[in-house]
């Protein structure tokens, strides 16, 4: 029991994308303090915890579906320009932790084909390469991600402020009204992740180390 009191509250997201022969497959989930909160399967995202009222959630679902369709169309276009005869698997793992003493820790890690690829250094909003080989590909992806506020300052804000704020509200347990007021932030974080994934699609242009 003492150990559980010292454990941090945690919000995590896992987003996976597999690209093969011009087709994209999506799946993933989000959890809030160990409870499954959202689930992504293909083009369908569902809200497992009742964090948003039905009308607001319906709009969020449509936004996610629209983005994923757009992402898939881009992959098909890129594949026509530079066909890939092998599968690329991209995984984004991010979240934050709130400790009992009030301190927080945020993280964002990206793997490509099961190997550490990029890490987002939250304090100074910079991307760092982790790829052990194919340096041109990692350098290209890092450069592209550093170009846009959505993938630097906005992502930093999501992780340091929005994500931690969700956990603070969870810790305070201020009732249903608080849960409703923070629900758009939860979905905002999810949509922010999809936006980041959209920028990262540039790595698929770098087949064979040609960027």
In short:
With 211 residues, this protein is an alpha+beta fold.
Task: Describe the protein's topology.
Layout: H1 2-6, E1 9-20, E2 23-32, E3 35-41, E4 44-47, H2 54-81, E5 88-98, E6 104-112, E7 115-121, E8 126-129, H3 135-145, H4 153-172, H5 176-200
Helix pairs in contact: 2-5, 4-5
SSE string, helices as H and strands as E = HEEEEHEEEEHHH
Cα-based radius of gyration, to the nearest Å? 18 Å
**Uncertain runs:** 1-5, 174-181, 205-211
Shape: globular
Mind telling me the CATH class? Answer: Alpha Beta
Q: Approximately how much beta-strand content do the residues carry?
A: 25-35%
User: CATH homologous superfamily?
Assistant: MHC class I-like antigen recognition-like
* Biggest sheet overview: 8 strands, antiparallel
Average pLDDT level: 77
Domain unit count: 1
* Helix-strand category: alpha+beta
Please give the order of strands in the largest beta sheet. 4-3-2-1-5-6-7-8
Number of strands: 8
Distance between the termini: 53 Å
Count of DSSP helices?
5
Keywords: Glycoprotein, Membrane, Transmembrane, Transmembrane helix
Organism: Burhinus bistriatus
GO cellular component, one term: extracellular space
Protein name: EPCR protein
């Amino acid at each position: 029991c003492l150990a559980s009191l010292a454990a941090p509250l945690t919000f995590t997201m896992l987003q996976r994308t597999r690209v093969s022969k011009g087709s994209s497959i999506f799946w993933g989930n989000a959890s809030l303090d160990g409870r499954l909160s959202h689930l992504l399967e293909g083009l369908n995202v569902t809200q497992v915890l009742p964090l948003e009222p039905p009308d607001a959630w319906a709009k969020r679902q449509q936004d996610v579906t629209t983005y994923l369709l757009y992402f898939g169309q881009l992959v098909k276009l890129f594949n026509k320009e530079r066909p890939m005869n092998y599968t690329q698997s991209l995984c984004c793992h991010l979240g934050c932790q709130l400790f009992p003493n009030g301190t927080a820790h945020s993280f964002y890690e990206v793997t490509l084909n099961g190997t550490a690829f990029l890490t987002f250094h939250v304090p100074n909003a910079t991307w760092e390469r982790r790829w052990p080989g194919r340096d041109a590909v990692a350098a290209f992806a890092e450069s592209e991600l550093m170009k846009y506020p959505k993938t630097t300052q906005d992502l930093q804000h999501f992780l340091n402020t929005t994500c931690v704020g969700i956990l603070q509200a969870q810790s305070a347990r201020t009732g249903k009204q608080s849960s409703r007021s923070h629900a758009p932030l939860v979905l905002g974080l999810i949509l922010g992740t999809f936006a980041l994934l959209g920028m990262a699609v540039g790595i698929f242009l770098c087949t064979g180390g040609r960027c």
